[in-house]
Write a structure and sequence with these properties.
With about 750 residues, the chain is of the alpha/beta class. It contains 21 helices and 33 strands.
Length: about 750
């Protein structure tokens, strides 16, 4: 059972506002997620037409200095006052005309209820929780699209300009505050407790509770990870739309409710196909109504599609979508609405929607496990481009296309293909751009199955040759068994490439004569490379040192000049484009780590990673006369084959020694994870890039909740599931938790897996 009960506003006398002060009051902590800078910026735009208005900010925090500087930079020192905290906020509400809530996120928004209790209406960002539960758009306040300061400024200016509207909304706010009175909220709690108490011994309830507990333990191994549905940035459906959704839900067994809206259940849809499905939905509706449109192109090569339509045809577009998808769970998110609250509307209900800057068309999909949803973020935008006579063209309503913010026409004169379908576009969009990547990109993995008896025999024989015990020992630097442990991560890492990087040409899997039993080795996009194909000297084999194996990757036959190197515990977390890793001029990118390389020369007692980093530092200091200080993130490594060859020629002796080192050695250098990037930076073939990267140590209980956060937010471009040498989580439990998490994050089977999908 899930029930939502709001916070209550304390009883007691509260002075009422007359709303005549022409003062906007914002009580907020000055911290990043409260986004008070948005309120200042928006006020700066609105006050131009209303110079007698003031903005008063109550609160302090680490951004106080920055907010004061912003006020000065915008020339608002005469109209914006940063007052600091106050213990008399009820008195300040009595002096307010309205308030603004520009937060990035809100749990509830009690400050809005306090404002309403004084008869003060509000303007707020429509974030997923909080404001929309309190503000009735157009009744006691205005909701605008999150993070849109232009829309925020327009809403503020609307209340500043219309005194009658301000007073009408203020009166409605005072009435609306009664919904949150202590008496009403207390009765709700009492009713809930009474109902729960009455059913506490009900056999059906006890059975269901036991079943849930058993299921939870089965999928989480009893740890801190909890399977979670993805978070949504769209407010749940309500009112008439919710009622209509219930009708559709009752009549279609393929529909379920997720994140407050309907979704179709599918377990076979990779991300790229979800984007294409929604592009097709939008295009089909426009073409059926003979509405001309242009498929735009973006400079960042994003898979998100945008269609440009003459703004004069906006009503026709809304009608076309309503005709095309009656009785279907197809939504249109309102982009930049002028009068309506932000949110997603069923396509069939678009006839009642007012002016917007665009519509994001989406048919939501959800996997049967409920952990992967393709929502509006995967939708196709239909943008309404108004004609500007002064510019002699159509102007971007939200953000520019690859050719800039203005188009000469939105009537197509060319076609372009997306997968197997042609779409109308402009000739200029078909021209090669300076930012285009016109070269192939491959991916390389190194992989080992530590449970293979033959591999264990080879390892122990090699160790015996070196006078070491016949079993990896944790005290041997860099040679702990954790380095060889296989938990089937490769299956899910490959799924992540198929899901989020369909532009990869060929995947090379480098192994010591091994292959996973579930792997579809005959797949044309996959090649298995044996160690013997990489070494000229058979005496160097067998080798169990990742530094050594990595030093030979550029010898892979037919490998592209540009490629990504991934460990099997690297995963793509969301769609990424190749220009995240390479520039169109051929340069590779790298991602600095905040972790500094310890001072001093490498010693036998150093951890393997740091020993190799120190050795790299010494080589670079001797060659370039500079000292490197930091390493790189645990993320896919963008590499160039020619640069690797140059490095092995220039530093022939240390690289040759590393390639002959059968086990990790403190004298190794790390070629692909470090030396390549530093060398490329110093020779002009590599440059810093940016990537959202996550890291979870699966051997620590305190980090397991980070898996839940990764799954719910899906906000990282890449992430790594690592394990330190000293683990507190038993190996079996780690494997169960990781399997549960990875199956939840990547539930769509990849093209590189056999039909059974089960390891032998």
């Amino acid at each position: 059972r899930l029930e939502t009960i709001s916070n209550a506003i304390p009883d007691g006398f509260r002075p009422r506002s007359s709303r005549t002060s022409k003062t906007i009051v914002v009580p907020r902590r000055l911290v990043p997620d409260k986004q008070v800078d948005h309120a200042i910026t928006a006020f700066g735009k609105a006050v131009i037409e209303h110079p007698d208005w003031k903005l008063r900010i109550f609160g302090d925090g680490p951004l106080t200095g920055r907010m004061r500087r912003l006020v000065e930079e915008l020339g608002l020192h005469d109209s914006v006052e940063i007052m600091g905290p106050t213990r008399h906020m009820t008195d300040e509400w009595a002096k307010a005309a309205f308030t603004v809530l520009p937060s990035e996120t809100e749990g509830f928004g009690l400050v809005l209820v306090e404002a309403f209790a004084a008869g003060v209406p509000a303007v707020a960002y429509d974030v997923p929780t909080g404001p929309a539960e309190i503000i009735r758009h157009g009744v006691d306040g205005l909701l605008v699209e999150a993070a849109d300061t232009e829309a925020l400024a327009a809403a503020m200016a609307r209340l500043m300009a219309d005194e009658a509207l301000l007073h009408r909304m203020g009166a409605a706010a005072l009435e609306g505050a009664t919904r949150f009175s202590a008496a009403r909220i207390n009765k709700t709690w009492e009713r809930l407790f009474a109902e729960l108490y009455a059913t506490r011994r009900d056999p059906a309830r006890l059975t269901a509770r036991a079943d849930r507990a058993g299921h939870r333990k089965a999928v989480t191994a009893g740890g801190g990870f909890q399977p979670s549905a993805p978070a949504s940035k769209i407010s749940p459906s309500a009112g008439g739309q919710r009622a209509r959704e219930d009708e559709l839900l009752a009549g279609d067994a393929s529909l379920v409710r997720s994140a407050g809206q309907l979704a179709y259940v599918r377990d076979d849809l990779p991300a790229a196909r979800a984007y294409e499905e929604n592009l097709r939905l939008a295009a089909d509706a426009l073409e059926a109504a003979d509405i001309p449109y242009v498929l735009l192109r973006d400079r960042d090569d994003s898979p998100h599609r945008r269609l440009a339509v003459d703004a004069a045809l906006q009503a026709d577009v809304r009608a076309a979508l309503a005709r095309a998808y009656p009785g279907q769970a197809v939504y249109a998110e309102l982009l930049g609405p002028v009068t309506d609250a932000p949110g997603a509307v069923l396509a069939e209900r678009l006839g009642g929607v007012g002016e917007v800057r665009g519509l994001r068309v989406c048919r939501p999909y959800l996997t049967s496990g409920r952990t992967l949803r393709y929502g509006p973020a995967f939708g196709c935008d239909i943008e309404f481009w108004p004609y500007d006579e002064l510019l002699g063209g159509y102007t971007a309503p939200r953000r520019p296309a690859a050719l800039g913010p203005t188009l000469r026409t939105v009537v197509p004169n060319a076609v372009t293909r997306v997968r197997d379908r042609a779409y109308p576009t402009l000739e200029d969009f078909n021209e090669p751009l300076v930012t285009d990547l016109d070269f192939p990109v491959d991916a390389v993995y190194t992989w080992v199955d530590d449970a293979d008896p033959e591999w264990q025999e080879r390892l122990n024989a090699r160790r015996a040759e070196l006078g070491l015990p016949p079993k990896p020992q944790a005290e041997v630097a860099g040679d702990a068994s954790v380095r060889f442990r296989n938990r089937d991560e490769l299956r899910y890492s490959l799924r992540s490439l198929a899901m989020y990087a369909p532009w990869i040409r060929t995947i090379y899997l480098v192994t010591d004569g091994q292959r996973p039993s579930w792997l579809k080795a005959e797949h044309p996009g996959l090649k298995i490379v044996d160690h013997r194909a990489l070494w000229d000297d058979p005496a160097a084999l067998p080798v169990f040192n990742s530094h050594a194996i990595e030093s030979r990757l550029h010898h892979i036959e037919d490998l592209s000049e540009h490629f990504l190197y991934l460990n099997d515990d690297f995963f793509l977390g969301r769609p990424v484009a190749p220009n995240r890793f390479f520039r169109s001029n051929g340069n590779s990118r790298f991602f600095w780590s905040p972790t500094a390389i310890p001072a001093g020369e490498a010693t036998p007692t150093d951890e393997g990673y740091f020993a190799a980093a120190k050795n790299n530092r010494r080589l670079l200091k001797d060659r370039f006369g500079v000292t490197v200080t930091h390493g790189f993130l645990h993320a896919p490594y963008p590499l160039r084959r020619s640069v690797l060859s140059r490095i092995t020629e220039e530093f022939a002796e240390p690289l040759a020694r590393t390639s002959r080192s059968a086990l990790r050695d403190w004298r190794d250098v790390s070629l692909v994870s470090s030396l390549h990037h530093h060398y490329g930076y110093l020779t002009g073939t590599a440059e810093p890039g940016g990537i959202r990267c996550g890291y979870v140590d699966t051997g620590r209980y305190e980090q397991q909740h980070l898996l839940t956060r990764l799954l719910a937010n899906r906000a990282k471009d890449v992430f790594c599931l690592g394990e330190g040498a000293e683990s507190e989580v038993p190996e079996t439990e780690q494997a169960q938790v990781m399997r549960a998490f990875l199956e939840a994050y990547f539930p769509v089977k990849g093209p590189y897996e056999r039909s059974s999908g089960v390891s032998e």
